[in-house]
Fold:
Amino acid sequence: MNGQTKKMDEALVRVIKISKQALFEFIYEKFIDNQELFLDVDPLDVTNVFDINWERGEFIFCAYKSEDANGNMIEFSKEIDLQQLMKNMEDTTCTMYSDGRYSEYTKEELIELSTKS
Structure:
């Protein structure tokens, strides 16, 4: 992408058609590119995990501090099941461009939410 626009001919229609996998990658990349805006974080200070549920049409994206005070990498808890979180959580927003679009949880709260039936 070179950032330059091209004039459209009135008889033409430009079309993009992508697969599920490409759609998933697009959503993920959009969140990565805009995590500073969407989550009020410094993208160099966080690591992300994400998942999608195609049947329910849900996407979840989590940002967490990537290093502890000693500079050791922090891993996302294996006890947190993103698919279960999507089932058990209410949506945090109806639009990505309004205030209050994200919620903060402790890791313990997310573990509890992801183990709830």
